[in-house]
UniProtKB/TrEMBL annotation:
Annotated InterPro entries: BTB/POZ_dom, SAP_dom, SKP1/BTB/POZ_sf
Domain (BTB) ranges: 164-228
Native organism taxonomy: Eukaryota, Sar, Stramenopiles, Ochrophyta, Bacillariophyta
Source species: Trieres chinensis
Protein name: BTB domain-containing protein
Domain called SAP: residue spans: 337-371
Amino acid sequence: MEVVGGSADAKLISEKRSIEWKTEPFSARLKKGEDICLPPLTCHGRKWSLELSPSSSSSVTIKLKLHFEESTPDHVQVIATVRCGWNQWGFPGNNISRKSPSLSLEAGESIFKAGDGIYYAIDTSKKSKVMIAIQEIRQQPITWAPSNYLSADILKMLDAGEMADVTLAVGSKKFQAHRLILAARAPVLAELAEGALFNAEIQLKGTDESVFSTLLRFAYSGKDPFETTGGGKPDPRAVLKAADRFGCTALKRLSEFHLAQNSLDVDSAVELLLLADGHSCALLKEAAIRVVVANPKKMKSCSGWDELKASPSLMVEIAEVALFRESPTEGGGSDDVECMNIETLWKNLGDAGLSVDGTREMLIERLKNHRDSH
């Protein structure tokens, strides 16, 4: 692929490929004034046909036509040359479009060496041959695309306190926030600010400053706080609790996903099961129960075992999974709501514009009610 032009208008020229039409001698037909239409052949993945039309006793119009298909761009640029016998000509111009799909050239007497009405350059043997060499000219693809700065710009408003209308006090730190964003991203926080005076200060007790900062920055930016490079990553357990308390459902789901993916093992299964049950984390709870059921003899030595034994409802759920319940469909392929895994329930509820927060039973009931009403 050859590159031509400067950086602003650089174009790519494809390799030269040829197509050749072989047909019965057509000099006699041209002599009679007939048009010659040669069938479409493929070059560079596109179909081209050729037409020869005698325009006078000593010249022929050669027309190269592109057959536009649905996937063909509206405009195509090519460099095309035609060869008949010993003669070769380049088509003037190189722009082809749906409205003007052909390139034409006039081959005159000095080129064709016509004599006695026979076009020797075209028809010199028992077979007539016409060869077209085609190169496509394409714009060099743009490799740069503008970044989406929306989340970064909104986060700047939080950092600068620009146009803030409520102050959230956590410990010794005060966060200037915006009720409109809180209403969309952490509705419980928005409810706490509802009815308060402009830029009123609201005290939030029982919350760690750094954890609350993580929650607020996620609410403004949507950036995964657990993918931060280097040290200082937040504790997903603490973040999950804060997200559940203040109604930041997206961060709550993200926290339980990270716990299920990166922290769940035989030693932590009981502790994470209790955490998931206490905060209605369906994904984490389901994953933790599977680990408990798969490793029953090791659970007695796990932290939280005594608390788990003291919960009849959890012990019943574990027993049901161990004895009766089949695992939810792998990949969520079933359309039966009862058989869907948590990810599929979340997707179906999200597509319907419904809340994805709650236990598995709550999610199933919510989706069933939606389907029954539609």
